[in-house]
User: What shape does this take?
Amino acid sequence: MVSTTKNRKIVIDSQALATLSFAEQGIFKPVDRLMNKDEAIEVDNTGCYKGKPFPFPFILAPSGEKNQEVISSIEKGEKIDIEVDGKIRGEIEAEGFFEIDRRRRIEQIFGNYDTQNPATRDFLKRLGKFSIYGKYHVNYEDIKNTKTLIKETIESTGAKSIAAIMMDARPFHRAHERLLRITLERSDLVIVFLSKHEARKDKVSYDTKYEILKYAIDNYLPKNRVLVVPFESTFLFAGYNDAILDCICANNFGCNKFIIGKNHTGIGMYYDKNEMKSILSKYESLDIKIEVISRFVYCKDCKTLVNSSTCPHGSHRHIKYNSKALRRFFRVGILPPAVLMRTDISSKLLSKCMPDRFENINKIYDDIFPNSGLLENHSEEEFYINLMKLHQTTSLT
Assistant: This one.
């Protein structure tokens, strides 16, 4: 989109654009505009906006000398263009601006002011001194398309109980699969919101995560009852309020159940009069049921995947499903044991993380594995699958 006007502009990145789209599409409902100073103070004090839960003020204060110069000199009613990557992607009907407390903004998002935290430092870099407020419009179809897809799926399936699971799936392991199965037992339809956040060092793109998750669902779960959609986990979701924002988003996307793990960093479990509660307990007024699930482990004595809160054998007998540890396997090119991930899934992921790792995969394959005596082509994924089968051979171990 190229602007034909002579409006002044502010420049933001794609994450800020997606964040604005969340509100415009009603996913942050009732938030649908950039808040003024009085509204921001009220939300900060009450945790509510227009009587509905919202964890912190919804503002736009982009850093940059030019951005701050424009914002601090706007006139009421002035139209300000929104530029992203050199293109005009929206417009703000400016009503005014106000100065923000940058330290307080960090505390609102992260719960503290820890400049040793890389996420805090990144957020400070993008945060300016002045915030613009008013109504706006942005051109960003992704969230609108996701909203439409979910609505159409609910209508076509006739689902009444719709559960939301926010998932990063880096990588998709057996505990994820168990969580999906349990949720399916209690729901007509499960919406998996797959995070689009990509960490460079992990070499796992959103497309790869989506492909592998879809493969697992298509082969091991009732695929007509699980819908995977992209979720724009922007900078607002980086702090300790991410579980609250996830819950609000799930509700406004059309889900009536929200499934979250008890060990989620943003859930803040605590006891109140001998009753276990979480930070989400403050948001019981939302029209969505919140289910907190204990984490799953593999028990050496039970010899199966179990809920950690119901297994009697103790943590010293438990094999844990730690996504960060599993990513280290793939980073150095090692296949995780089958007890942690299905062999075909880990093989598919490793072949994506390290493509063309071997100079002549067909020769290596024929030198090790049985063959028909004819020249055959084999993929790295096929090689890894058969290699894992050798690892599981027990007659010589």
About this structure: Residues 241 and 266 are 6 Å apart (CA to CA). The longest strand covers residues 87-99. The chain is about 35% helix and 20% strand.
